[in-house]
Amino acid sequence: MSSLHLSIDDTLALVSTTDPAWNDDGTRVGYLRFADGETQFATQRVGPVEGTDVSLDAGTFTPDTETTLDGVAGFEWRPGHPEEALVVADGDLYRVDTSAGTTRPLARAHEATSSPAWHPDGDRIAYLRDRTLWVHGVDGTVTALSTDDPLRPADLFGPTPLEWDPSGRYVGVVVEPDDVEALGVAVYDTESPDEPVVWETTPTTADDCLRADFQWVGAGHLVYAEDSRDGTERVYRSVRVGEDEGLGVAVASESVDGLLLPHRPVGHESGRLAVVSARTGWRHVYAIDVEARRDAVENGDDRPGFTGTGVVQVTEGEFEARGDADDRPAWSPDGERLAYVTNEADPGERHLEVATLGEGAVTDRTAFSDVDGNAIYPTWSPTSERVACLRSGRFSPTDVHVAAVDTGAMRRVSASYPEPSRLDGLPDPEPVSFEASDGATVYGYLYLPPDAEAGDDVPSVVLCHGGPISQMRRGFHHGQTYGYFHLFDQWFVSEGYAVLELNFRSGVGYGDEFEQAIHRNIGIVEIDDCEAAATYLRERPETSDRVGMWGRSYGGYLANALATMSDEYDCAVNVAGIWDWRTWEEWAIDLGPTHWGASEPTWFHNRFGGRPDSDDPVVQERYRVGSPNSFVEDLDTPLLALHGSTDKNVTVGELEVLIEECVEAGVDFDAVYYPNEEHMFQRPATWRDALGRVVEFFDDHLKE
């Protein structure tokens, strides 16, 4: 019936592009390129941006340069050397000369190296190895900045924050003590290797907080975030190393009756700080003059809020000024402008915007609102004239784009799909909304086979994203995981399915009330939204009464929940989802904040109001109601569960418990685990097998 023709191999031909960054003279953009199960460091020369061209045919699929290393995890351009970058690969450090095409090792060891950061002069690099801070010179000199105190750099699930101050003397790093499960910030003086820690703030158990996100705002001057362990309060504190004692000066603060997302502030050496806050009910950008703020509040309130002297609200209105939960604004090198993205024009899109700041106010704005699609992660060129970002379109995957701030022009630099014409027939994303049973509005994007008509009885599939602090977009998604899932959905469309990419309550893009809706309501409001989606699809004139769903991570949890708690779906596919919040939390809490970072308490306790072993019957009931295994005996919706054995986000133990309890209950299910696969499957062979099973499962249960 459909005129759209895609295969599994067509979906796996997509290249994921991430982490764009300018070299020292602004002639190249480097980025990470994931293809065929491997990640490589690639670069592309960038000339003048004289006109806007973001078409599928624009950009270069084959980069100017690309490494051939194993296990590339990141890169850092070398200051003062525009053709050289440091690349992290399999835990070792390599110097890559992009002009000569050479690669040579800088630091190799049995233990993995992480969080490399070049000195401002480009003559040495700081990094972490075996929970020790090292400084490695390009001349071969190596210094370990160790201390006898029970305080060491943290070993986090993601990169441990590590930054040089603008003077190049101090290194800030997130640390953890050996005697208490907490995170703090320490400053190391590289000129005093025998007694390197010159300032630190590490909370005790009694402090009931974590201090883990920081940025330098001048020579020897940093700002860090102090988060309460229950995830409800945050204070930003300013510290001048060598001058301030104790915790420093509070310059901003916020609190919520719900959950504060972890957010790393963005500093500039001029003394300015940018943060994102939802204090008005929508997430907006704020610029803080730290010195002015210190003068205004130094002898005042330790909870100074976000109003008054030294604070400028850069964006305002019923829209969001962030691309995703981890998106941040970016200061221009001269410190006069901020680049960020907003969904002011369309809830499911993000447009690049640049604000110029004068004395205490925004004096000018440049909005790239005539370029539809989703921009995210802006980064400035060294001359403050251009901004590189990731951008995806309604019909085009995510690529590096460069915008000329003064002219408003933008063009695609990279190309992430080898045969753009294969994507010409993709259906137009149709924005849809409908009401849940409690009257709340739910949103999504519907994709119908191109020639679908009323009365065709097309079977339907709902995709539920992970997070859950995420959002499916109007077209391709910028993230590696959901960029691929979006193209997988288009393959389902080519197989004759209607696909609804659902934005259930708890996601971003629709305001703080929408995002906070699952607070103490896990397994209730988002299940209601999913059920409303199934009803909506059954009532469409083009679709049949057969509806399935699939999702990964939190979406996989929803698949488990809908299979056990609801009869609204004809089948469900769980990819790496939680089966029992209690067993998962026990596993996750054992790993501690040094695995998860500052978000650990917010995710693992705040959502339910307490620990899984709480004596509070209200908390116990929330865990019971939210956990699919509580209703295993009611599982009569066909369920397919897929999981990777080395998943670091949702342990494969969740699948093992699912299998054990389903067998004991005597209910039918299908389950497959993939050895040595992560939370997002990496190998094309795994996806060929998994997608083959998924479409066969849908065909069996959704097609007549």
What does this structure look like?
The protein is of the alpha+beta class. An 8-stranded mixed beta sheet has the order 34-35-37-36-38-39-40-41, sandwiched between helices. Strands 13, 14, 15, 16 and 17 form a 5-stranded antiparallel beta sheet that branches. The model has no long low-confidence stretch (mean pLDDT 92). The chain contains 12 helices and 41 strands. β40 (639-644), α11 (653-665) and β41 (670-674) form a beta-alpha-beta unit. It starts with 7 loop residues before the first helix and ends with a helix. 53% of the residues are buried. The chain has a domain at 426-580 and 637-702: Alpha/Beta hydrolase fold, catalytic domain (Rossmann fold), CATH 3.40.50. One of its GO terms (molecular function) is dipeptidyl-peptidase activity. Residues 490-703 form the Peptidase S9 prolyl oligopeptidase catalytic domain.
Helix content: 10-25%
Structural class: alpha+beta
- Cα-atom radius of gyration: 25 Å
What is the CATH domain class of the domain at 426-580 and 637-702?
Answer: Alpha Beta
Spatial order of the strands forming the largest sheet: 34-35-37-36-38-39-40-41
Q: Give me the oligomer status.
A: single chain
Number of strands: 41
Strand content: 25-35%
CATH architecture group name of the domain at 426-580 and 637-702: 3-Layer(aba) Sandwich
What does the main sheet amount to? 8 strands, mixed
**CATH homology-level superfamily of the domain at 426-580 and 637-702:** Alpha/Beta hydrolase fold, catalytic domain
CATH topology of the domain at 426-580 and 637-702: Rossmann fold
- Give the CA-CA distance, first to last residue: 15 Å
Which regions are unreliable across 5 or more consecutive residues at pLDDT < 50?
A: none
What would the average pLDDT be, to the nearest integer?
A: 92
SS summary, helix count: 12
Q: Shape from CA axes? A: globular
